[in-house]
């Protein structure tokens, strides 16, 4: 039995890792094609039909390019930086429940690598470590542009993690659990928790301000436009990865897109019901096998993720980059006070509605 559990978890880890890498690969193509559409041009369309082999061509290019180590760089940390960024990006998804359990006879297979009761804290802890990859790589390059990008990444991450954490505190007050699966299970299949279903419905309807704060901070934590100051090309060449080449640069780029994928999964799980979908309970009442409902839940979850990935791309090619002072002012003078106010309002509402004594 123990061997079966090990094989099951190893298989799930492999699948999640492969899916993360494939999504990261093809998000580069999607972003370039959408950028071309917004700018009235074609975009990549030569490598394979409709340009579908372009990500593979880019991967081969990164693998085969010359490895360059700057003379005055700290070579160990120079290699460790992108490795750490990639590592933290891939392990964040360990606590995300991708669907309901599958049953095969008396065997139950969980579509979650680790169901720990402090899953939200785990996500925040790993996300906090992600900035070290940028800091280490930028400092070790011995390049002023890389160092400036690393400093920006650190200050931006610290600033927006505070507002993000406070936004999640209000959500946790409503859900009463730190388990990601517990939060997902607490959201019913209906959108706002009516018609006698279990759960409150999707949390976005009960914590809209927390969702908006989390969404803004999500862009800042992923270093995506309009918060891409750590790699601001017009000022810092390429920011913290200016001196990196070959697959070390590829790790930084892959880490960014994997972070986008994981962030989209987390926001879908926390605020949009995760693998729950409208009509789920009615479908279960027809007698359909629970495995089919679980598979449909996985599909629904990935559709939600796809929406937020598109939103990342849409915002990048719609909104201009903030200035650094505007970035800091938004984080400290607006988002943090709003998050604190949201915690207070949530506590008062819960007190007067009898949810807490």
UniProtKB/TrEMBL annotation:
<dbReference type="InterPro" id="IPR001694">
    <property type="entry name" value="NADH_UbQ_OxRdtase_su1/FPO"/>
</dbReference>
<keyword id="KW-1278">Translocase</keyword>
<keyword id="KW-1003">Cell membrane</keyword>
<keyword id="KW-0812">Transmembrane</keyword>
<keyword id="KW-0472">Membrane</keyword>
<dbReference type="GO" id="GO:0005886">
    <property type="term" value="C:plasma membrane"/>
</dbReference>
<feature type="transmembrane region" description="Helical">
    <location>
        <begin position="12"/>
        <end position="30"/>
    </location>
</feature>
<keyword id="KW-0830">Ubiquinone</keyword>
<keyword id="KW-0874">Quinone</keyword>
<dbReference type="Pfam" id="PF00146">
    <property type="entry name" value="NADHdh"/>
</dbReference>
<feature type="transmembrane region" description="Helical">
    <location>
        <begin position="204"/>
        <end position="220"/>
    </location>
</feature>
<keyword id="KW-0997">Cell inner membrane</keyword>
<feature type="transmembrane region" description="Helical">
    <location>
        <begin position="335"/>
        <end position="354"/>
    </location>
</feature>
<feature type="transmembrane region" description="Helical">
    <location>
        <begin position="249"/>
        <end position="272"/>
    </location>
</feature>
<feature type="transmembrane region" description="Helical">
    <location>
        <begin position="162"/>
        <end position="184"/>
    </location>
</feature>
<dbReference type="GO" id="GO:0048038">
    <property type="term" value="F:quinone binding"/>
</dbReference>
<feature type="transmembrane region" description="Helical">
    <location>
        <begin position="76"/>
        <end position="99"/>
    </location>
</feature>
<keyword id="KW-1133">Transmembrane helix</keyword>
<dbReference type="GO" id="GO:0016655">
    <property type="term" value="F:oxidoreductase activity, acting on NAD(P)H, quinone or similar compound as acceptor"/>
</dbReference>
<comment type="function">
    <text>NDH-1 shuttles electrons from NADH, via FMN and iron-sulfur (Fe-S) centers, to quinones in the respiratory chain. The immediate electron acceptor for the enzyme in this species is believed to be ubiquinone. Couples the redox reaction to proton translocation (for every two electrons transferred, four hydrogen ions are translocated across the cytoplasmic membrane), and thus conserves the redox energy in a proton gradient. This subunit may bind ubiquinone.</text>
</comment>
<protein>
    <recommendedName>
        <fullName>NADH-quinone oxidoreductase subunit H</fullName>
        <ecNumber>7.1.1.-</ecNumber>
    </recommendedName>
</protein>
<feature type="transmembrane region" description="Helical">
    <location>
        <begin position="292"/>
        <end position="315"/>
    </location>
</feature>
<feature type="transmembrane region" description="Helical">
    <location>
        <begin position="119"/>
        <end position="141"/>
    </location>
</feature>
<comment type="subunit">
    <text>NDH-1 is composed of 14 different subunits. Subunits NuoA, H, J, K, L, M, N constitute the membrane sector of the complex.</text>
</comment>
<dbReference type="GO" id="GO:0003954">
    <property type="term" value="F:NADH dehydrogenase activity"/>
</dbReference>
<keyword id="KW-0520">NAD</keyword>
<dbReference type="InterPro" id="IPR018086">
    <property type="entry name" value="NADH_UbQ_OxRdtase_su1_CS"/>
</dbReference>
<dbReference type="GO" id="GO:0009060">
    <property type="term" value="P:aerobic respiration"/>
</dbReference>
<comment type="similarity">
    <text>Belongs to the complex I subunit 1 family.</text>
</comment>
């Amino acid at each position: 039995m123990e061997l079966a559990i090990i094989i099951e978890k190893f298989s799930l880890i492999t699948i999640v890792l492969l899916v993360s890498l494939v999504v990261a690969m093809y998000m580069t193509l999607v972003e370039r094609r959408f950028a071309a559409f917004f700018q009235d041009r074609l975009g990549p369309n030569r490598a394979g039909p409709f340009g579908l082999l372009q990500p593979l061509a880019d991967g081969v290019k990164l693998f085969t390019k010359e490895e360059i180590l700057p003379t005055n760089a700290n070579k160990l940390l120079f290699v460790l930086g992108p490795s750490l960024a990639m590592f933290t990006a891939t392990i964040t998804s360990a606590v995300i429940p991708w669907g309901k359990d599958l049953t095969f006879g008396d065997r139950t297979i969980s579509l979650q690598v680790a169901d720990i009761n402090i899953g939200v804290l785990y996500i925040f802890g790993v996300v906090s470590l992600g900035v070290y990859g940028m800091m280490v790589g930028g400092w070790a390059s011995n390049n002023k542009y890389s160092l400036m990008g690393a400093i920006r990444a650190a200050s931006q991450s610290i600033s927006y993690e505070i507002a993000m954490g406070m936004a999640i505190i209000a959500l946790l007050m409503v859900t009463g659990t730190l388990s990601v699966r517990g939060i997902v299970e607490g959201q019913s299949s209906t959108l706002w928790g009516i018609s006698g279903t279990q759960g409150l419905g999707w949390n976005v309807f009960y914590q809209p301000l927390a969702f908006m704060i989390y969404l803004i901070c999500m862009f800042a934590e992923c270093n995506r436009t309009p918060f891409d100051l750590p790699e601001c090309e017009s000022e810092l060449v390429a920011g913290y990865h200016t001196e990196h080449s070959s697959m070390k640069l590829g790790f930084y780029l892959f880490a960014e897109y994997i972070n986008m994928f994981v962030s989209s999964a987390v926001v879908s799980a926390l605020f949009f019901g995760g693998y729950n979908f409208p009509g789920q309970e009615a479908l279960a009442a027809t007698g359909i096998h629970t495995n089919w409902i679980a598979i449909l839940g996985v599909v629904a979850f990935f559709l939600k993720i796809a929406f937020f990935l598109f939103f990342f791309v849409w915002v990048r090619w719609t909104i201009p980059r903030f200035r650094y002072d505007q970035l800091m002012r938004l984080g400290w003078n607006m988002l943090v006070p709003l998050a604190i106010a949201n915690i207070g309002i949530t506590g008062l509402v819960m007190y007067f509605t009898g949810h807490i004594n």
